[in-house]
Design goal:
Chain lengths: 303, 217
């Protein structure tokens, strides 16, 4: 029984491949259309993944810099340390004396000449402070509070750009979702129409099959296979398009990256994301075919 | 085997094709159904295969009431029946062999035995040498025989033929009639609708004759 079932499905699978190959141009065209449609959200998704990996590398928790007034005394520094230890929002902090800061600055590229010409150290003492995650503006309250301490000259969020990037990524992911939804509907519509045309040309076969005892699922099967296989091919096309685009972009990036002395290479979809893409596109094709079959097959009743 | 009880069929346009039909066939019987065109022969055959539904009355096949069959059960009823259509209903996009293959694919037949079954059926109707031919290249008589091969390949217990000798020469027609007789001899219930009086001249089989939707005995 199971073997008969497998034989039947295997037969339909190869029959469908044969049908696809027998009309190479139209099959290729619809596969390419689906591939391009899918490559748009996929490309944006790849970009998002790469950007979020950059922001992920850079900072784990929000970071603030506290610059103290220049005429500060040792006891005041101890006072600040104590106050910060008591604050539950501050996870950890690190004191950077002005001499250390100047030393670090002297070692930075290109600034040696400038620092050497300085008569005295213009840098203030500073703290680098790691805080809890930013939820509903609590960090802004903390910043205002610290700014009001008498010893503090200036408080600065170091992680603002990362927050901005994360907000941008959130927006980007939303755009990916919208694009995916819209283009999925488009792919379903393409498949709906392809299958509708196929059903029309196979009218006789469907009618005769029904007359000699074919079940609905037997009649549906080749169309569903057709949809799923075309969808899968569309997904694979999108993946190939992405491979080519990423390769081309990485070649361009190399020159840019060399100019800025910065290591950046775009990564392709992860294996699990790639498999998700293929499964999703196969499912879309299947779904388009399923809807089409459901709305057209009942019209063909033998008389 | 097949029982009609007070069966009527009225089409949506008001035309009454069958009016209060009553009869019963035994299993293994061979029966002719005659009458002028428009007498309701085709409708009666279509009711048996659930291609049409009766307006009233009950039709039982092997104890099953066809009139109340769920749509999902119809395919399994049709697999018990070999139907020879008046217009053949062959598929012109595939060769003789693949046309006969269709019923076996539909009933999920074990692959190993398929080719043997098909060739046996083609042999019975004398088309074995033409298994690779396309239906378009066959003569009218050959198409009729191909249709018979397709109807018997899955060994149905009931064989129904609608005007099987329709526009054939008398020799061809007798050929085909003797095929039906040989199927009947191995236990198949055979029902043949025909308006061809020459087929019925000296038959020992039962004849049902329809006149304007009524059985005339």
């Amino acid at each position: 029984m199971i073997r008969a079932w497998l034989t039947q499905h295997g037969f339909v699978f190869f029959l469908t491949l044969k049908r696809l190959i027998s009309t190479p141009v139209s099959s290729m065209l619809s596969v390419i259309v689906m591939g391009i449609a899918l490559s748009l959200p996929t490309g944006l998704y790849v970009l998002m993944e790469n950007l979020s990996s950059i922001s992920g590398q850079t900072a784990s928790s929000p970071q603030m810099s506290l610059f103290l007034k220049l005429d500060i005394k040792k006891e005041d520094i101890e006072g600040i340390k104590q106050r910060m230890e008591e604050d539950s929002q501050i996870v950890s902090f690190q004191f950077i004396p002005k001499d250390t800061a100047l030393h670090q600055l002297q070692q930075s590229n290109g600034l040696t000449d400038i620092t050497a010409s300085l008569v005295r150290n213009p840098l203030p003492d500073a703290f680098i402070v790691h805080t809890l995650e930013n939820t509903s503006g609590n960090l802004e309250k903390l910043r205002v509070e610290i700014q009001n301490w008498p010893e503090i000259e200036h408080v600065q969020f170091d992680s603002v750009w990362i927050e901005r990037l994360n907000a941008l990524l959130k927006l980007g992911r939303f755009v990916v979702l919208m694009l995916t939804t819209l283009l999925s509907v488009a792919i379903i519509a393409i498949m709906f129409n392809t299958i509708r045309l196929q059903i029309l040309t196979k009218r006789d076969e469907i009618e005769i099959s029904k007359l000699i005892g074919a079940t609905d699922s037997f009649i549906r099967r080749p169309f569903l296979y057709f949809g799923a296989i075309q969808g899968l091919a569309g997904g694979a096309t999108a993946w190939l398009i992405m491979t080519l685009v990423i390769r081309a972009m990485n070649e361009e990036l190399i020159t840019l990256v060399q100019l800025y002395d910065f290591d950046l290479q775009l990564q392709h979809l992860s294996p699990s994301d790639s498999i998700s893409l293929l499964l999703f596109s196969a499912w879309l094709g299947w779904l388009g075919a399923r809807i089409s079959v459901a709305s057209h097959l009942w019209q063909i009743e033998p008389r | 085997m097949i029982t009609f009880k007070n069966v009527s069929k009225r089409y949506p346009d008001g035309y009454v094709a069958l009016n209060n039909i009553d009869f019963a066939f035994e299993s293994g019987e061979m029966v002719f159904l005659t009458g002028h065109s428009g007498a309701g022969k085709s409708t009666l055959l279509k009711l048996i295969a659930a291609i049409e539904r009766p307006t009233s009355g009950t039709i039982t096949i092997s104890g099953q009431n066809i009139a109340q069959l769920k749509p999902g059960a119809i395919p399994y009823l049709r697999r018990k029946i070999g139907f020879i259509f008046q217009d053949h209903k062959l598929l012109f996009d595939r060769n003789v062999f693949d046309n006969v293959l269709l019923p076996l694919q539909i009933s999920n037949f074990d692959n190993k035995m398929v080719a043997g079954r098909i060739r046996a059926a083609l042999d019975k109707v004398g088309l074995l040498a033409k298994e690779k031919a396309m239906p378009i290249a066959l003569s009218g008589g050959e198409r009729q025989r191909l249709c018979i091969a397709r109807a018997v390949v899955h060994r149905p217990s009931i064989l129904i033929a609608d005007e099987p000798t329709g526009n054939l020469d008398i020799e061809y027609a007798q050929d085909i009639m003797s095929m039906f007789k040989s199927f009947n001899q191995v236990g198949v219930t055979v029902l043949i609708a025909t308006h061809d009086a020459s087929l019925l001249r000296d038959t020992e089989h039962r004849i049902l004759s329809l006149k304007q939707g009524k059985l005339a005995v």
